[in-house]
Amino acid sequence: MPTRNSFDYAIIRVMPRVERGECVNAGVIVFCPEQKYLGARVSVDDARLQALWPLLDLSLIRSHLEAFIKVAEGGDGGGPLAQLSQRERFHWLVAPRSTIIQVSAVHSGLCENPGQALGQLFNQLVPLPPPDADPQAAATAK
Fold it and tell me: Which tops the pLDDT comparison, 18 or 126?
């Protein structure tokens, strides 16, 4: 039987006008220390973000979101933060912020493969479901 390990995750959110509290989920961070895994996945929904703030600089938002991936991966491309230990990088990535890009509270789960968990969480939490999707049917199918 495959081993299930605990992991922590947080949702990356874009909040164009912090004072209004409106946000769009834009990514997920997953950390599984037992498997030495730290990963992030992001996506920008231009239309949803521009509906909240038409003057938002989407290219700037994309570059800041891509930094989450680079820091999570570690190595030379992520600057000094990417040189920290995996645990330190995770804690930096999920630290509270009062900027346009914010991170949710940290949640926990169990998984066999943290990369798959990242993909599943991303698919559940970031893109909008199709307009004809039945939320009750999806909930009972699980």
Answer: 126
